[in-house]
Amino acid sequence: MNTIELKVSLPPGLSEDEAKVLLAIKLYEVGKVSLGKAANLAGYSKRSFIEILGKDRIPVFAYSPEELREEVGL
């Protein structure tokens, strides 16, 4: 994975930590990074990051109906 450093002017009221979490959430949500990488980017454990995703109503498991049926053996 490539590593780059971004310099971004944040709007008033948005901290660097909050921006990292928001970026990690979006990258995970669109499938660009794994759960573990997103948690690492945000500075949280996987468990804590899953809780953050839950608060934002972002599914940790995004199965299609067909994949879910296959997974549970129906």
Automatic annotation (TrEMBL):
InterPro entries per UniProt: UPF0175, UPF0175_domain
Domain of life: Bacteria
Family membership noted in the UniProt record: Belongs to the UPF0175 family.
Designated name of the protein: Uncharacterized protein
Provenance organism: Roseofilum reptotaenium AO1-A
Lineage of the species this protein comes from: Bacteria, Bacillati, Cyanobacteriota, Cyanophyceae, Desertifilales
